[in-house]
Amino acid sequence: MEWPWLFLYLSLHITGCQKTPALFQTPPRIVALNNSTKEMVCAMKSEQFSHLGIYWYRWSKESQEFQYILFSNVLHKHTLGDDIDKERFNVSKGSFRQSYTLKISKLRPLDAGTYYCAVSQYSELLFGNGTELSVVNSLPSIEKPTEKTLPPKKPLRCKPSGITPAKMKGSSCSGFIWAPLATCAVILLLSLVIAIRRFQRLRRRLQLHFSKHMFSRDY
């Protein structure tokens, strides 16, 4: 299977990869459990690629090389790469925007890597943005933040200097309570005195006015 590698070489070393991917892959990253099944989607941005088949490659960080996975033509016939199990790798075509779904079952640690879909046009491979796949034995657990319990607040106590508990007579804040009450009592008393004096003045004026009125009536 030499011709897919020839297209890949021409794309990477001669014509160069396109800056804006003609293919859009989702999701960008997958974390999967060992022996599980995952899918990744490759959607074509233009309908001009609808008559073309689709390639799938895997980039391995460990070996630092591309591995040809498979090629699926418009008739949905697959051409698998070396050491690729057809029972675990499958490509299906979707109806939305000419999308293709790569399904990998019974995942293994060796399946980890970045998967790229690609189409061949004018002797050039146009790649997608890639989907990074990680295969782990257990998913990382998310620990809930522990709630910190605040110490109980101490009750506020009034302890004026120079006053002993015996003098306070069971009330620790008696000085703060009686002072406003005494002030209010004095204000009320002064207001009452002023009101009484005004009432007396008014009474005298009324008596004087009544006396003058009676005197003028007699004469």
Tell me, what is the CATH class of the largest domain?
Mainly Beta
Total number of helices:
3
Rg measurement, Å: 47 Å
Strand fraction: 25-35%
Sheet/helix structural class: alpha+beta
Biggest beta-sheet profile: 7 strands, mixed
Coarse morphology: rod-shaped
Query: Helix-strand pattern, N to C?
Result: HEEEEEEEEEEEHH
* Count of domains: 2
Fraction of helical residues = 25-40%
Q: How many strands?
A: 11
Looking at the structure, the CATH topology of the largest domain is Immunoglobulin-like
Describe this structure in words.
Helices cover 28% and strands 29% of the residues. With 219 residues, it is α+β, with helices and mostly antiparallel strands. It has 2 domains: 3-136, Immunoglobulins (Immunoglobulin-like); 165-218. Strands 2, 4, 5, 6, 9, 10 and 11 form a 7-stranded mixed beta sheet that branches. The protein has a 4-stranded antiparallel beta sheet with strand order 1-3-8-7, with no helix packed on it. It is rod-shaped, with a radius of gyration of 47 Å. The termini are far apart. Residues 1-7, 9-18 and 168-172 have low confidence and may be disordered. Its main location: membrane. Residues 1-17 form the signal peptide. This is T-cell surface glycoprotein CD8 beta chain. It comes from Chelonia mydas.
Task: Summarize the entry for a quick read.
With 219 residues, the protein is of the alpha+beta class.
